Amino acid sequence: MNPLDLLLLTGLATIVMAAGAAGFAVGRIILTMMYALQLIILVQIDPAMITPSELSITVLGQTLGWQFDGLSWFFALITAGTALLASWYAAGEYGERMQKQGGHFRLLHVGLAINVWAMLLLLAAGDFLSLFLGWELVSWAGVLLMVLGGKLSREAALRYITYAIAGGMSVLAGMVFLYTWSGSLGFEQVTASIAQLTPGQLWTVMLLLVAGFSVKMG
């Protein structure tokens, strides 16, 4: 098992750990250590090289794959480092105060773990389909974190869901056009077919993707 696969599996194990142990002080310490472990695994990945995952899934004839390059590694480092600090902070006085106030503390840690894992999947996407799945998982994990913040946060989360669905459908439509015109959702295959697209096709795909990603980023 290469470091990228180990990183993704560790992220998945962190979600399971959060669901089962976030309610206990020792469990929260272990969770913080899990994010530290993710950082240690990241250090084992050479950012100067492409690190492909040995795991792949076939969906509707399309193979979902994951890989890390230097840019993926850099943003994964920021993601895991931020998660480590957030988990560390939540494991202390903040977490105790939230529990006393009846807050959904376990959901907070589960949402954080899902968000981090989804970000790793997004950053490691090796094709448009895995990119889309990672992007959507990040969005919905964000909704889970938002609704835990109280009444104003829940109202904002409802607005966010509307924007997220609209943006996601725009990206999905762009991907459908790409697949129809290129016959694949792989980055290399789509890139090779761009020169064969008409200006109208190119503008259609570009506008759908740019609009979808811009709405969700906003």
Description of the molecule:
The chain has a two-stranded antiparallel sheet. Helix 3 packs antiparallel against helix 5 (105-123), helix 5 (105-123) packs antiparallel against helix 6 and helix 7 runs antiparallel to helix 9 (199-217). The radius of gyration is 19 Å and the shape is globular. The chain has nine helices and two strands. The chain is 75% helix and 7% strand. 35% of the residues are buried. The protein is mainly alpha-helical and 218 residues long.
* Beta-strand share of residues: 5-15%
How far is it from the N-terminal to the C-terminal residue, by CA? 37 Å
Q: Helix content range of the residues, please?
A: over 70%
Q: Helix segment count? A: 9
Order of SSEs? HHEEHHHHHHH
Average residue-wise pLDDT: 85
> What is the count of β-strands?
2
Radius of gyration: 19 Å
The strands making up the biggest β-sheet line up spatially as 1-2
Largest sheet: 2 strands, antiparallel
User: What structural category do the secondary elements indicate?
Assistant: mainly alpha
Uncertain segments are: none
**Coarse morphology:** globular
